[in-house]
From TrEMBL, chain A:
<dbReference type="InterPro" id="IPR050683">
    <property type="entry name" value="Bact_Polysacc_Export_ATP-bd"/>
</dbReference>
<dbReference type="GO" id="GO:0005524">
    <property type="term" value="F:ATP binding"/>
</dbReference>
<keyword id="KW-0547">Nucleotide-binding</keyword>
<keyword id="KW-0813">Transport</keyword>
<dbReference type="InterPro" id="IPR003439">
    <property type="entry name" value="ABC_transporter-like_ATP-bd"/>
</dbReference>
<comment type="similarity">
    <text>Belongs to the ABC transporter superfamily.</text>
</comment>
<dbReference type="GO" id="GO:0016887">
    <property type="term" value="F:ATP hydrolysis activity"/>
</dbReference>
<dbReference type="InterPro" id="IPR003593">
    <property type="entry name" value="AAA+_ATPase"/>
</dbReference>
<keyword id="KW-0067">ATP-binding</keyword>
Automatic annotation (TrEMBL), chain B:
<keyword id="KW-0812">Transmembrane</keyword>
<dbReference type="InterPro" id="IPR000412">
    <property type="entry name" value="ABC_2_transport"/>
</dbReference>
<comment type="similarity">
    <text>Belongs to the ABC-2 integral membrane protein family.</text>
</comment>
<keyword id="KW-0472">Membrane</keyword>
<dbReference type="InterPro" id="IPR013525">
    <property type="entry name" value="ABC2_TM"/>
</dbReference>
<dbReference type="Pfam" id="PF01061">
    <property type="entry name" value="ABC2_membrane"/>
</dbReference>
<keyword id="KW-1003">Cell membrane</keyword>
<feature type="transmembrane region" description="Helical">
    <location>
        <begin position="254"/>
        <end position="277"/>
    </location>
</feature>
<feature type="transmembrane region" description="Helical">
    <location>
        <begin position="167"/>
        <end position="187"/>
    </location>
</feature>
Amino acid sequence: MEKDIILKAENISKQYRLGQVGTGTLSHDLNRWWHQVRGKENPYLKIGDTNDRSTKGESDYVWALQDINFEVERGDVLGIIGKNGAGKSTLLKILSKVTAPTTGSIKSRGRIASLLEVGTGFHGEMTGRENVYLNGAILGMTKKEITSKIDEIIEFSGCERYIDTPVKRYSSGMTVRLAFAVAAFLEPEILVIDEVLAVGDAEFQKKAIGKMQDISRQGGRTVLFVSHNMAAVENLCTKCILLEHGFVVFTGSTPDVISYYLSNQKVVSTKLSEIKERKGNGVLNFTEGIIKDNINPINSIETFSDFEIKLNYNLDPNVLVLNNRIDIGINNYMGDRVAWVSSSNIIHDFDMKKGEIVFKITNSPLAPGEYACNIYAEINNEVSDWLISVMPFTVIEKDYYKSGKLIPSNQGSILLNYNIK
Amino acid sequence: MKNNNVSNDWLFEITPKNKFFSLNLKEVWQYRDLLFLFVKRDVITVYKQTVLGPLWYLIQPLFTSVTFTIIFNNVAGINTGTVPPFLFNLAGITVWNYFTACLNGTSDTFKSNAGIFGKVYFPRIITPLSVVISNLIKFGIQFLIFIAFYCYYYLIGTDLSLNGLVLFFPVLIIIMGILGLGLGMLISSMVTKYRDFSYLVGFGIQLLMYLSAVMYPMELLKDKLPKYGWLVEYNPLAYIIETARYMLLDVGKISIPGLLYTLVFTIAVFFIGLLVFNKTEKSFIDTV
């Protein structure tokens, strides 16, 4: 059977110039223009580093995307996953025609509409109803289309009461609801979505996800969905592509890509001995910290999974240890303490000869997000080593409740294991 | 792999470069509702939360005309012939205002719409086009005040007459709008990379007004400063304003070669502006 390809990307690359626009840009522009006049190729296309934000590059130019090829069939829900800075958003920007690729082309058999961010073009002075029209038109609907759907849109948003009030009087949640409602009633052949699920309260999120599923399943619509949220991707997408440093590293069915993504993250044990900023008398020095699942070092943990935090240390052999303790405080990205584990809670003075301590955590209730540890050692009632905000790790969401429903990101910093009777 | 005849039926293609010249009129037509809604937005939100509201449309040209009349006619003694100086200035300022509003509004298209352009695609030309159209409405309102004063002066017995060519007045205004749009598109494209241009526009418009025969008849400058007369003679805007006054008040002269020059200049600027604008809209978001 002939495949019904609706969208095809061929050798898409995108180059960005780093740094500020200034006189340097002008000279590059002139040089580029001079090459063009003589019919030569753009001299700056040959240079440029791979997109890796953590290493210092040689060149001012960077490739945000390199040689991206993929095909999307009609009715596919394609997930695009990857870490921050892997090039996901750049790809979506190219797909939604916001910016052009540096090389390559995208061919499409359908209208593409994007939900890069909801509420684009809302004007605070205009009423909700006027904004629905304006926003709808910006997203590519005609006035007639909007008029035929306006009642549904308003009902879906749940803002009936305020619909003739200027949007600047709305709460931020209401604005988002209204904006999402407009976008949800778009009917392009290809819909591009970037992280819209992270909006609104729990009730609205449920509605939004349901709508997404409707769009992709019943409508036979093609959807490109970009997210960090593995549970959402797992739930919505049939196929995925995995981006890393601007390259497509894996394409396939969703479970395959996700397991590849999770197992192939570059894991770094934290060399604690190299950290200069520390307090304490130095009787004990932490040397290395690793977070592991049962077997392998990892830096992302799934919700409700088991993991270990292992700390290695050197102890001054000349010191007679009378009492000791080692603590780990786990802080969320805001720096708030969410959990604390201490050797002193379990054993009063543990044997320090081994040079390592392992904290085994079972059924971790940490909510999805970014975390870091404060580690602390006390020997003979004196602080001997204390490091702040080291060993960062990520907790990612797994469809634990087997319902396909996500836990809204703003609903607390721990998860509960519960049942309904 | 697909065979070639199948891959021809793509609806559209996204490529690095635009064709040398592409104004996709079909696409603009598809988005006509958006154009209309942008115009509506501009018109209804301008003077929201002001007490005087749309009266501001009228206050500005009136006060400027009064000031000009005092400075240029009463103090500096510029002679406007049989026409009352106030009416002479009001005509010039009303027309000039339309040009500056178009140029100011369109020249920061990319910069001020970066947020929305960065998220969603629609034909970018809709935005400057909506500026030119909504300013046309503003111009219409300001022109009404001119008509009101015209009638007033007529009724108190001032010797005023329209020129038959006044029928072509709308054409003149459209030419002016297109010139403002063309220049605006050109400048807005350059502002995306080099902000220097937005400063240039700021005071450039001020200086240009003095070279555009807004508050004096074109002949006067040529008489008094024969050396610098060419500055006005090469300024297409001076011809537009002079001609507008000729049509409305029957003063000054009409210069057919001058108008032809203006027309050619306008068309050239418009197409260059469009060209640069099209080139810029593809990737301005990376540099803005």
